[in-house]
Design goal:
- By secondary structure, the chain is α+β, with helices and mostly antiparallel strands.
- It has 13 helices and twelve strands.
- The chain has two domains: 222 residues, 3-Layer(aba) Sandwich (Beta-lactamase), CATH 3.40.710; 138 residues, Beta-lactamase (3-Layer(aba) Sandwich).
Length: 379
Amino acid sequence: MRRKFSGRSLFGTMIGAALLAGCVSSAALVPAPRQAQTAHNGSGAVTVPIGAPVRSSAPPPRGTLDPGFRRPAPGLGDRIASLWRAFPGKTGIAVQRIDGEWAITQRGADLFPQQSVSKLWVAMSVLDAVDDGRISLDQKVRIGPEDLVVFHQPLAARVRSEGVVTMSVRDLIETAITHSDNLANDSLLRTVGGPNAVRAFITKKDLGSIRFGPGERLLQSATAGLTWQQSYSAGRNFQTARAALPMATRQAAMNKYLADPIDGASPAAIASALTRLARGTLLSPASTDYLLGVMTRTHSGPKRLKAGLPPGWQFLHKTGTGQDLNGMTAGYNDIGIATAPDGTRYAIVVMMGTTTSSIPARMALMQAVSGAVAEFHGQ
């Protein structure tokens, strides 16, 4: 893997001069948000109390901090800005040093469609309920044909074959995160108390600009311009009904969603939430270790952010991908935590709100962002 590259040259040969269109902001280098009790201030330095075993060791005394603790390596912000400017469509980037005091953002405060990234907040809400004694990881959840959803739901094959499936909360979290299974996720959502329970968790933890939608069925049907019917969960009934709509109806529904995504979140808020998760300030130590471990087993998006990191780095993450319309994808995302060989950790977020770029080009941007973090690490 090449470690030295220019963001402009990477995309110049791929996409050309037209890539400079549609971008609206300049680079932002901001202090990392404070801990939960002061996160609403949006600025300030933090000292990181980190413990075992999936977390890095606590930072050394102030007099011996490594240069990258208080500020990013010279040139990293410019590299991220160059990559961002060169990519078409509405794109947001955030990089935050978890064991440090800084963050870099591009359109960091804007809301982007999360799609399956929001499964992370469902899992956190469930684990928060576990921490409070309201739910057990071994609790059984019944899943029947009336619970089937739409799009990616491998678990649905078992339901159709067996009629009713019973799974533990633990297994549902594993399936929802590692396989991005919509049925497993909505089953967890139902178990924890529905969308309002997740919104209450987000408010309780002061996560900032992170919204949570109405669940997979209502979110996807509204984005397509449909009113949900349970028959849409069978086969390709949803896709058939969507294709039968007038294009004007579909475009209007998509435009409404993109203008104010009901599941929208800002890259900066997500990076801050990942940082707080890794630091152990969102969940109990046991739930923190468990969720971070689950995220290391994510199957989706192997050629997104993860592929840009060199050997020796570790990465745990959650992807999200929205519906397509006329070659445009409403949400193409990857968010995660990268750990360098020396234990230093970075939250990395890349979100594409709207893009008509090819999938290889999207993945190339993500790889370039994570690759830049690795290249500049320790400089």
